[in-house]
Design a protein that fits this description.
The complex is a heterodimer of chains A (409) and B (85). Chain A is of the alpha/beta class and 409 residues long. In chain A, 40% of the residues lie in helices and 16% in strands. In chain A, a hairpin with a 2-residue loop joins strand 1 and strand 2. Chain B has 85 residues and is an all-alpha fold. In chain B, helix 1 crosses helix 4. Classes of the chains: A alpha/beta (409), B mainly alpha (85). The interface between A and B is medium-sized, with 18 and 15 residues.
Chain lengths: 409, 85
């Protein structure tokens, strides 16, 4: 009996997904050629599973700033900001983020996961209540578990259910913090934020919106769902990440709340983690500048998202409820999904494979994320591959006459 | 809501019978996931239906402790009694 015996079931599932060269959980990119292409098993592959929404990972300006920062400040900070002090870049980035969102305060974390871990575990303490959407990201659930608040979940995207949960708590003292996401990472759907903000006001709760997948994607200026829904004044805390539209790694929180700075000595995941290295801070700062100045990136992203979403939908695939840069195709069973994923990769297309229980519908998902940097041709190649493989595996009905799309593949 | 433990047991058992979609012997010590084979989504939907029916919210730390039918009945009973208190 090993200490790892309890994971036997998990290990079996993991191994059943196939050998190294065809196991979706073991995929390795030998080289990354651009923000939309890489080399996998020696094959040139179009990347449709990167969350690289604005395609900034190879932006010349971002690379240049990053290189400059490494030369001036070194490769790492080698410690936490509370213990070792901050570099000017950390504070500058916090000021830029706060300014972008029109908030008084900003705080940067070493990952997006840690931003949620920090904020949720610290904001809601003993006697407080966290009310989470049931489809929340693991970082939200884990942040909730790390803290001492009572945690309740409401039905996904159901403002009435949220209202009910808060009504049941109305005689309980303590703060109530509602947590929702701008775009949910599995199906690409958004929270009904207008209705949720209304519940928040009526029930006197706090509202935190995780804009990880919606920053730089939604809203007139790219501030996310809070902006596009027109309820920024109701959102007390915005959490986000640098590892999607900003093309690096890290997380942040911005807020107008009085006394925000105390969080720097109250958030344990912030206090006891090494801070982001200078190269990451510098590229992120430059990517934020690009996000703000180049509204065309968002227009291209939206066009690309619609091309892929409507294309897959027209082919007859079961996709999520709305067009967004996350487009997921539901497949009935794991075996078909793994075969589908492998055939896509062999055809030169990389997407993510999400398996239950990590999926909201308990069915496997072929999850594609689109970028402003994708060309219409790359998207059409993806659509043709999906159509061909979908028919071969019986996920799509085979047409009487072969369609032009299938012949392209 | 003034349900007795027995009423709650009858209702919970009925809800579980409906969720497993095939006749199953459901006793107090029946384990909801291992014995009835319900997946995580089915368990969540079942919990939420019970929460609606009894107008309570089962906190996640309590959900984590529920293994058997008895555990579930006990959690719902305690929460409904707290509501009345």
């Amino acid at each position: 009996m090993s200490i790892l015996s309890k994971f036997e079931h998990l290990a079996q599932t993991y191994d059943r997904l196939g050998p190294v060269d065809s196991n979706p959980l073991k995929v390795t990119f030998d080289r990354i050629l651009s923000s939309t292409e890489g080399l996998v098993n020696g094959r040139q592959t179009i990347l449709f599973g990167t969350n690289n929404y604005l395609g900034l990972t190879f932006d010349e300006g971002c690379i240049e700033q990053s290189v400059k920062a490494v030369r001036s400040f070194g490769t790492g900070t080698t410690g936490s900001r509370v213990a070792n002090g901050s570099y000017s870049g950390h504070r500058d980035l916090e000021l830029s983020l706060a300014d972008f969102y029109g908030r008084r305060h900003g705080m940067v974390f070493s990952t997006g996961y840690q931003a949620n871990l920090s904020m949720l575990s610290t904001l809601a303490g003993h006697g407080d209540h966290l009310i989470l959407d049931s489809d929340s990201h693991a970082s939200i659930y884990d942040g909730a578990r790390l803290g001492h608040a009572e945690v309740i979940r409401f039905r996904h995207n159901d403002a009435d259910d949220l209202h009910k949960r808060l009504r049941r708590l109305k005689d309980h003292p303590g703060s109530k913090l509602i947590v929702v996401e701008g775009i949910y990472s599995m199906l690409g759907d958004s929270a009904p934020l207008v209705e949720i903000a209304q519940v928040k006001r009526e029930m006197d709760a706090y509202l935190l919106v995780d804009e990880a997948h919606s920053m730089g994607v939604l809203g007139k200026t790219g501030r996310g769902l809070s902006e596009s829904a027109g309820v920024e004044a109701d959102v007390d805390f915005i959490v986000g990440t640098f590892s999607k539209s900003l093309g690096s790694v890290g997380g942040f929180c911005v807020s107008d709340i009085e006394g925000f700075e105390v969080l720097r000595v109250a958030c344990r995941p912030y206090m006891f983690t090494a801070s982001l290295p200078p190269g990451v801070i510098a590229s992120t700062q430059e990517a934020l500048r690009r996000l703000i100045q180049d509204g065309g990136l968002r227009v291209r992203l939206r066009d690309n998202a619609e091309r892929l979403y409507h294309g897959l939908s027209r082919l007859g695939f079961h996709v999520g409820p709305q067009a967004s840069p996350i487009v997921s195709v539901t497949v009935d069973d794991n075996e078909t999904a793994v075969r589908f994923w492998n055939l896509l990769l062999q055809g030169g297309l990389y997407v993510n494979l999400a398996l239950p229980p990590a999926t909201p519908t308990n069915k496997p998902l072929l999850r594609a994320s689109i970028s402003a940097a994708h060309t219409p041709r790359q998207i059409d190649t993806a659509l043709a591959l999906f159509a061909d493989i979908g028919q071969r595996l019986g996920v799509l009905p085979v047409p009487a006459e072969k369609s032009p799309v299938a012949m392209v593949a | 809501m003034t349900s007795s433990t027995n009423d709650i047991r009858v209702h919970v058992t009925g809800a579980l019978q409906a969720a497993v979609l095939r006749p199953a012997e459901i006793e107090g010590r029946t384990r909801i996931v291992q014995d009835l084979g319900l997946d995580s989504l089915a368990v969540m939907n079942l919990m939420m239906a019970l929460e609606d029916h009894y107008d309570v919210s089962i906190p996640l730390d309590r959900v984590a402790e529920i293994v058997t039918v008895d555990d579930l009945v006990r959690a719902v009973t305690q929460l409904t009694q707290n509501e009345r208190a």
